[in-house]
Amino acid sequence: MNLRKTILATSVAISALATASFAHAEPTAEVLHWWTSGGEAKAVAALKEDFEAHGGKWVDSPVAGGGGDAAMTVLRSRVLSGDAPAAVQLKGPAIQDWAEQGALADLNDVAEKEGWDKVLPPAIQAVMKYEGDYVAVPVNIHRVDWIWANPELLAKVGATAVPTTWDEFNTLADKLKAAGITPVAHGGQPWQDATIFETVVLGVGGPEFFQKALVDLDEDALKSDTMKAVFDQMRKIRGYVDPDFSGRDWNLATAMIMNGDAAMQIMGDWAKGEFLAAGKVPGKDFLCAPTPSEHGYLFNTDSFAMFKVSGDDKIEGQKLLAELIVGEKFQETFNLLKGSIPARLGVPMDKFDECAVKSEADLKAAQDVGGFLPSMAHGMALRGHLSGAIVDVVTAHFNSDMSSDEAVERLVEAIELAKD
Ligand code: GAL
């Protein structure tokens, strides 16, 4: 064989090899997420297992930190350095933000093949699509406005159920405090302060007020006497937490309920994932009940957005992951562990516990009365700079002796500045 022929033969062989490796590209996905607590880790492990069982290679990139602030910082630096992870836990308007910047890959071919338009509720589709294209996939519906309670501690002051009005809540908390029991388990981190705050906005102001104040950012609502009453209630709650609350992780606050160190925690139903991971039984070892409100429901849908990456293995990985996530079986398995309910329509609820069943029923009831509202504290209602402005004021108030009047003034100012 002359040299020319040898070179040609070699290059044909190489390209055959390349084609073969293309055909066998191992679907690979680096997954950036913040699910590191006991319950969260079990849930994300179910996703990993499902992906691997379907031939995928999972590259785990966890960034610890409840609520995801730290994960979002890592994401920004990864994208800036041209090294975006393939799949990223991302939510609400942040999906639109990244899509606007041209960072997200579209998943329309998987969506069409799998009929997502038929199996996802329209409200959730709207969050997952950018200009009509699917750029993210939902894993769940978490409810934020919950109270998790230790029934034995409640019984010590004669209570058999979780309070259904904020006045009852305060009366019970005063009794617990007098009995030497910490009424509220809380972790003093801005997103946790904001989680309590938004449930109080919902309860004290009602769903319509919540919409005006925390979704529409209506100035009259923000500076209203109702908002002052919200901060008054926040001040009360500040008096119900233990002296060591500052900086505590949310799952450690949940552990306080399990261990009998505190009576109630206001937290989304990822807290239920912690109870379940510890083998606790709802209705027996712990109680779940919505925070007081008139048929409100604050929803928080976790989702994964697929960033633009190159390499067939990665693109195949994104498609496989997206397909599995929306699949019926995964939506059941994952949500049983995570504490949430499926985002996909029609998933049987027979294996779910009483808290999840209540969540689903309340969701429907809330939708009927305009009470189904996006969580501000968990990035579903507003773009980051706007929710950040609110959260800063809420935290500054919670951690000082700022009056409700001043908090409201600061809130209005902060929103004005952030809007510019
Ligand atoms: C939320 C997220 C939940 C849970 C929680 C605590 O924002 O939606 O899935 O992980 O943070 O980390």
TrEMBL record:
Key word Transport present in the record?
yes
**Where is this gene product found?**
Periplasm
Record bears the keyword Disulfide bond = no
Q: Which UniProt keywords apply?
A: Signal, Transport
InterPro entries the UniProt entry points to: Bact_solute-bd_prot1, SBP
* Primary location class: periplasm
Coiled-coil residues are none
Q: Name one Pfam family in it.
A: SBP_bac_1
Q: Which GO terms describe its cellular component?
A: periplasmic space
**Signal peptide extent:** 1-25
Superkingdom field? Bacteria
So what does this one do? Part of a binding-protein-dependent transport system for a sugar.
Family statement drawn from the similarity comment of this UniProt entry: Belongs to the bacterial solute-binding protein 1 family.
Provide the protein name: Probable sugar-binding periplasmic protein
